[in-house]
Amino acid sequence: MAKPRHLIAGNIRRTALGPGQAGTLSRIDSSLESCDFRKELRGYRLVCVDAEQASSIASSAQGLNVAGYEIPRLCRYMGRWIKHSGWYPDYKLRLYNRKAGCWKGEFVHESVKAQGEVRRLYGDLLHYTVRSASEHHQRMDRYTTLAAEEMRKNGKRASAGALMISPVAAFIRSYIFRLGVLDGTPGVAIAYFAAHYAFLKSVKLWEMGKKGRSEEQAG
Predict the structure, then answer these.
(1) How far is CA 37 from the centre of its chain?
(2) Residue 132 — pLDDT band, cuts 50, 70, 90?
(3) Average pLDDT in the chain
(4) Both ends of the chain: CA-CA distance in Å?
(5) Helix, strand or coil, per DSSP, at residue 146
(6) Mean pLDDT value of segment 167-188
(7) pLDDT of residue 40
(8) Residue 7's closest CA among 129, 128, 121?
(9) The dihedral of CA 60, 53, 82, 140: what is its sign?
């Protein structure tokens, strides 16, 4: 069978329910009870580019004892498809049996978990990320707050060392070890945003810890 071209494209807004909101996962699952194999494409739509690919997906999901299928996600960022920087291949479980899979997690780490064999499909999930650096920064501010809340809930604390080291480590990991250098200017931006994300997450965790200690002392 010939390897298909890009399998999926999408440019639909995420649902109004944001990460970490009460009832998000249960509402997602309850809204997808209509079929055994279902597409969980939060923010996407399936667009098979030809009949052969559509037939390939349909046949893959029939007659096999498979819990789900992962699809590599290819991101569009700053006018370029990102092939490195740790962004590709970003495999996502987006086709799964409702009897074997469900959404788990909270805050910023929500994902589908499937009980059983998970296979991979060819083709890319084309993901159009943020439209500008400003939007990226705004989204990052929201997600770092959620990430810090999750870390605090799990008993983690921030330190001066983390504030200094984690941003540098994040930049080196993205730009050097994950070959962001090959993504051109977008690769530099991704690495810097990764560093900024690490810094914001740590400093917000530190602020939350300080506020919590102050409240304990006042009480």
Answers:
(1) 21
(2) very high
(3) 76
(4) 68
(5) helix
(6) 98
(7) 53
(8) 121
(9) negative
pTM for the full model? 0.74
Q: Closest by alpha carbon to 6, among 57, 52, 47?
A: 47
Strand bridging mode 101-104 / 90-97: unpaired
Better-scored residue on pLDDT, 125 or 135: 135
Question: Which two structure tokens, joined as six digits, stand for 7?
Answer: 């399998």
Cα–Cα distance between 219 and 208 in angstroms, integer?
A: 16
Instruction: Report which secondary-structure segment, H or E, holds 57.
Output: helix 51-60
SS3 168: helix
Q: Is residue 9 predicted with pLDDT exceeding 90?
A: no
Element (H, E) at 157: none
Question: In which residue are the tokens 């690769």 written?
Answer: 187
Q: Higher-confidence residue: 145 or 61?
A: 145
Across the chain, where does the E strand assignment appear?
8-10, 37-39, 68-77, 80-82, 90-97, 101-104, 111-114, 118-120, 125-128
Between β-strands 68-77 and 125-128, what pairing exists: parallel, antiparallel or unpaired? parallel
